[in-house]
Amino acid sequence: MATANKNTVDKNLRDTIFDELILSYDGNYDFQRINDRQYGVLMTDLNGNQRYVRIGAIVAELRDDMTAEELMQSEIDAYNQKQADKAEKAKARAIKAEKDKARRAKEKEENA
After folding, report:
1. Could you tell me the CA-to-CA distances from 105 to 91, 96, 101, 109 in Å, in that order?
2. Which of 4, 22, 28, 100 has its CA 20 to 30 A from that of 55?
């Protein structure tokens, strides 16, 4: 059986997902094809400014060391871990800020 080359396979996957996400979309926005990998749309942001928003499709490479499901899950897990780390650091900064505020208030009281 003949196999399609990488460019043909990736293009077919991108076209399929764009068809599913954009071409079947019947909402308020006019998505325009930018190139083989991106669509764009003009939107108004919360400040009333017109913005250009791009939607791109990236096809991950095939890997010998993991399946597509494993790759997707590893990227999800990495993202979730980074978000948890950010939240932990923010919590630590908030606690430190509160301690510093209390320390400054105490120093101010003592110097008064």
Report:
1. 21, 14, 6, 6
2. 4
90 and 108 together in one domain: yes
Neighbouring-strand partners of residue 41: 53
DSSP codes joined into one string, 11-64: HHHHHHHHIIIIIT--SS---EEEETTEEEEEEE-TTS-EEEEEEE--PPPP-S
Residue 4 CA to residue 14 CA, distance in Å, equals 15
Assess whether 21 and 51 both reside in one domain.
yes
Q: Are residues 54 and 79 in the same domain?
A: no
Query: Mind listing the pLDDT tens digit for each residue in 32-85?
Result: 999 999 999 999 999 999 999 999 999 999 999 999 999 999 999 999 999 999
* pTM given for the model: 0.69
How would you class 19 by CB atoms within 10 Å of its CB: exposed for 0-12, middle for 13-18, buried for 19 or more? exposed
Query: Residue 67 in 3-state DSSP?
Result: coil
